[in-house]
TrEMBL record:
Its EC number is 5.4.4.2. Belongs to the isochorismate synthase family. The keyword Isomerase applies. Residues 196-444 form the Chorismate-utilising enzyme C-terminal domain. Signal peptide: none annotated. It catalyses: chorismate = isochorismate. It holds the Pfam family Chorismate_bind. It comes from the Bacteria. The keyword Oxidoreductase does not apply. It is an enzyme of class 5 (isomerase). Keywords: Isomerase. InterPro entries: ADC_synthase (IPR005801), Chorismate_C (IPR015890), IsoChor_synthase (IPR004561). This is isochorismate synthase.
Length: 460
């Protein structure tokens, strides 16, 4: 029987160090900008996120055969306020202009910048800036059958030993046995007062929609969990990965400890070889029966909500696309106990358009904000809508050419120590009934509740 490869094997690490040292000697002095060295490695599973890694950024789309794990920062830009998109684009363009890449084994995999942004232009709390892009010092990437490591260095900081120390920490973490089941936890409900206030906001929104002030607005709420022992983010992510293979899995370490993590069903935008692709996901049912999906397709309220999202995405993309394909009708997407109306929009972007340009135009879609966008955002501000961290923003990656993928930060939670805060929202349109919308948010909380150990296996 062949011996199973272990990333912490001293022989492997010694060979890796020798190859990296040779590549750095070949690259010569780095006077400015960034240097990335990519080395192919034996197949390293990335289905789950390793435990105990600081500054980790984990991303996986199992359905696309794509996973990555970034550690540390060779370069970073944080941007806050209405200028955040300009700041991100300027910083990324500066990196591109002086980004040397040595793809030693011709993997075809470029170095990446990893990042995310919040719903609003201003940071919602101290845990995350309004927007951030970070070039990881160490990147483990799996693309189909190819596994590779990319080491990135900034000018003045090209040093072998710190890079290998980080690699040894990663190898040690990946060699640990898979996480066991998360312990049971208790839920601290908001209580009748907070639920009543949320229901009243839904009623206010319906009244303003009926008056013609706006067509749709998305209201969100949160719940908190407590555990006797600290949550294990790696275990939570493993639970998500087992159940949500058709979603985008993400985990981003928070500066003060803990992790922002989730399993998003919705891709805000992707760009690959000049082709963009976006999800329009709006309209939800949560009955497990097949009749629920059929009823969802025929439901006028959910259909109206979905069309607003498709219309808004198409309006945002048309000016920057030479070709745009908009489906005539949605399909029912089945994800666990939930059914969603889904339309996939695709287009060919015009020359000079990058992923950041698309994100700027698309965010926030009516799936997380409302319609018309300006009226919905004004309504949310006036009614005290508050969204923590990057919830209903997006998390994703870009390669050195400016292409990549960002998923809407949904079905997610902030997990720190023995505490976890979970988020969910519901789109309010004409005909929305407050208690039904509250029930929808409860249904959307279930994936993270399960992953965090709130339900026993027989209830899954």
């Amino acid at each position: 029987m062949l011996k199973r490869f272990r990333p912490d094997d001293p022989v492997f690490l010694g060979q890796l160090e020798a190859r990296l040292a040779a590549a750095l000697r070949h690259a010569g002095n780095l006077e400015a900008g960034l240097l990335s060295v990519t080395l192919a490695v034996p197949e390293i599973p990335l289905e789950f996120m390793p435990a105990g890694l600081d500054e980790a950024f984990y991303w996986s789309r199992p359905s696309a055969g794509r996973s990555l794990l970034g550690l540390g920062a060779a370069a970073e830009i944080q941007a806050d306020g209405v200028e955040r998109w300009c700041l991100l684009k300027d910083a990324f363009a500066a990196w591109q202009a002086r980004w040397q890449h040595e793809d030693i084994d011709a993997t075809g995999l470029q170095p990446l910048a990893l990042g995310g942004f919040g719903f609003a232009p201003q940071a919602a709390d101290a845990d995350f800036p309004a927007a951030r892009l970070r070039v990881p010092a160490l990147l483990l990437r799996r693309e189909g059958d190819i596994s590779a490591l990319t080491f990135t260095f900034a000018a003045g900081a090209v040093a072998l030993e710190p890079a290998m120390q980080r690699m040894r920490r990663l190898a040690s973490a990946m060699a640990q046995p898979p996480c066991e089941k998360q312990d049971q936890v208790s839920r601290r409900d908001a209580g009748d007062g907070e639920d009543s206030a949320w229901l009243a906001r839904v009623a206010d929104a319906v009244a303003d929609i009926q008056s013609g002030r706006l067509d749709k607005v998305v209201l969100t709420r949160s719940v908190r969990l407590s555990a006797a022992q600290p949550f294990d983010p790696a275990c939570v992510m493993a639970n998500l990965a087992k159940r949500h293979q058709r979603c985008t899995l993400f985990g981003v370490a928070m500066p003060a400890g803990g992790m922002f993590m989730g399993a998003s069903p919705e891709l805000l935008a992707g760009l690959r070889n000049g082709e963009t692709y976006c999800d329009a996901l709006a309209g939800t049912a949560w009955d497990r029966g097949g009749a629920s999906a059929r009823n969802l397709l025929a439901d006028m309220k959910n259909g109206r909500e979905h069309r607003l999202v498709v219309q808004s995405i198409a309006e945002a993309l048309r000016p920057v696309c030479a070709r745009l394909e908009v489906p005539a009708a949605p399909v029912a997407l089945h994800l666990g106990h939930l059914h969603h109306l889904w339309s996939g929009l695709r287009g060919r972007v015009k020359p000079g358009i990058g992923l950041l340009d698309l994100l700027e135009r698309l965010h926030p879609t009516p799936a997380v904000g409302g319609y018309p966008p300006r009226a919905a955002l004004e309504w949310l501000a006036q009614h005290g809508e508050n969204r923590s961290g990057w919830y209903t923003g997006a998390v994703g990656w870009m390669d050195a050419a400016g292409e990549g993928e960002f998923a809407v930060a949904l079905r997610c939670a902030q997990v720190r120590g023995t505490q976890a805060e979970l988020y969910a929202g519901a789109g309010i349109v004409a005909g929305s009934e407050p208690h039904h919308e509250l029930a929808e948010t409860e249904a959307k909380l279930l994936p993270m509740l399960h992953a965090l150990g709130h339900f026993r296996e027989e209830h899954d």
